[in-house]
UniProtKB/TrEMBL annotation:
Function, as annotated: Alpha-L-fucosidase is responsible for hydrolyzing the alpha-1,6-linked fucose joined to the reducing-end N-acetylglucosamine of the carbohydrate moieties of glycoproteins.
Catalytic activity: an alpha-L-fucoside + H2O = L-fucose + an alcohol; a neolactoside IV(2)-alpha-Fuc-nLc4Cer(d18:0) + H2O = a neolactoside nLc4Cer(d18:0) + L-fucose; a neolactoside IV(2)-alpha-Fuc-nLc4Cer(d18:1(4E)) + H2O = a neolactoside nLc4Cer(d18:1(4E)) + L-fucose
Annotated protein name in UniProt: Alpha-L-fucosidase
Top-level EC class as recorded in UniProt: hydrolase
PROSITE patterns (alphabetical): ALPHA_L_FUCOSIDASE
Organism: Cirrhinus molitorella
PANTHER family: ALPHA-L-FUCOSIDASE, TISSUE ALPHA-L-FUCOSIDASE
GO molecular function terms listed in the Swiss-Prot or TrEMBL record: alpha-L-fucosidase activity
Length: 451
């Protein structure tokens, strides 16, 4: 009896061990690209991008301030420095003024949660190399030893997770003026001092310390993935890291990888496909269309208004993508009121129309020019028709849906079923109620039991 019991326990142990290990991925793209995308990412649909760093101190032009000033020597940036700072002033001198003295991570998280976003991606390190945590590989060029003197990655992460949002980290591979990187570049990327002493130690440190649900890689365009050791890192991330079962990655892992390799595809900033892609994708877009970081010189006409943001979100989700909308906090640690107003406006719209966004799939038809332009999403046997302008009439015609006697049509936010009639071949005509006021200028028809 004892032998049988031991054999049963051994069998259960082997079963448990084999299921916990799962698939082992090898450090090559054929294997890594075969990994299924964790389901949570496709379901959440909407996230917030946060670009924050030393560039928030000059807050002029864009987050590429240092490169535009010293690399490209853009006359506008050179003139800005000449007129406002002494000749000996260096970019490093901005860091002590990155105070973040008003930064309240719970306030940030409340605003992001109120937006209806389900994940947040913070820049842990942009191309300037300054890390928003105490990286042991960044000397004093980090937010713990300099500037805010606090771990911004940890503080925001704790607040985000208290609200059951997913937490992701952006990390650039390259740094504009890092001497190790410049040396490797000079060698034609035949040496890897920068990768071995800076990039990879920081990536491993980020994952082990903060356990992000998403790694948003960037800065990949100058060197191949073999220089960056990208496949080796991803194999560890998917096989042995503390987030191996949940972590999601993008596609920026070396020259030629974008829109081809990785978890989901960014392809390019503000990627806007014209038809349904055959791979999970994400559009990253900034409320300030001229910059990802906060700018003191931004104008109101540089900002996306709420209806434009909602149209963009709806289009992206209808084509199977996720929408990652960026705001840049100030050096003092504040989200500008105009950004907060946009985010809360999105949240108010999603409170009514979220069923047509979250956990949906692209329908067999993504869009049609009905009485007004319409975008479709679907969830099981339910189809959602989202229209982003007021048809200004009582009847609304949809050509794509195939109805049945049991079809039910409602307007999200209005519990009463709407009267409708089928068209001759396919489609239907709906009798609309008075549409409720919507600052987003978008409404959704819910069609149950359509083919």
């Amino acid at each position: 009896m004892q032998v049988i019991r031991s054999q049963i326990l051994l069998f259960l142990c082997q079963l448990s061990c084999s299921s916990s290990i799962g698939t082992r991925y090898t450090p090559d793209w054929a294997s890594l690209d075969s990994r299924p995308l964790p389901e949570w990412y496709d379901e959440v649909k909407f996230g917030i991008f946060v670009h924050w760093g030393v560039f928030s101190v000059p807050a002029f032009g864009s987050e590429w301030f240092w490169w535009n000033w010293k690399g490209a020597q853009n006359p506008n940036y050179v003139q800005f420095m000449t007129q406002n700072y002494p000749p000996e002033f260096s970019y490093a001198d901005f860091a002590p003024n990155f105070h973040a003295q008003f930064f309240d991570p719970d306030e940030f998280a409340d605003i992001f949660a109120a937006s209806g976003a389900k994940y947040v991606v913070l820049t842990s390190k942009h191309h300037e190399g300054f890390t928003n945590w105490g990286s042991p590989n960044s000397w004093n060029w980090n937010s713990v030893d300099n500037g805010p003197h606090r771990d911004l990655v940890a503080d925001l992460g704790t607040a985000i997770r208290k609200r059951d949002l997913h937490y992701g980290l952006y990390s650039t591979l390259y740094e504009w003026f890092n001497p190790l990187y410049m040396s490797d570049k000079q060698s034609g990327f035949k040496t890897q001092q920068f990768v071995e002493n800076k990039v990879m130690p920081e990536l491993y440190n980020l994952v082990n310390r903060y356990k992000p649900d998403l790694i948003w890689s960037d800065g990949d365009w100058e060197a191949p993935d073999t220089y960056w050791n990208s496949t080796g890192f991803l194999a560890w991330l998917y096989n042995d890291s503390p987030v191996k079962d949940v972590v999601v990655t993008n596609d920026r892992w070396g020259v030629g990888c974008s829109c081809k390799h990785g978890g989901y595809y960014n392809c390019a900033d503000k990627f806007t496909p014209e038809q349904l892609p055959n791979h999970k994708w994400e559009k990253c877009q900034s409320v300030d269309v001229r910059s990802w970081g906060y700018r003191r010189n931004m104008k109101l006409y540089d900002l996306m208004d709420l209806p434009t943001i909602i149209k963009d979100l709806v289009y992206v989700v209808a084509l199977g993508g996720n929408y990652l909308l960026n705001v840049g906090p100030t050096a003092e640690g504040m989200i500008a009121p105009v950004f907060e107003e946009r985010l809360r406006g999105i949240g108010a719209w999603l409170q009514v129309n979220g069923d047509a966004i979250y956990a949906t799939k692209p329908w067999r038809v993504q869009t049609e020019n009905a009485t007004v332009p319409v975008w479709y999403t679907s969830k099981h046997s339910t189809v959602y028709a989202i229209f982003t302008s007021n048809p200004m009439q009582n009847t609304f015609m949809l050509l794509a849906p195939q109805t049945s006697y049991s079809t039910v049509v409602t307007l999200l936010g209005n519990p009463e079923p709407l009267k409708w009639a089928p068209l001759q071949t396919s489609g239907l005509i709906v009798l609309l109620p008075d549409l409720p006021f919507s600052p987003a200028k978008a409404w959704t028809l819910k069609l149950e039991r359509v083919a």
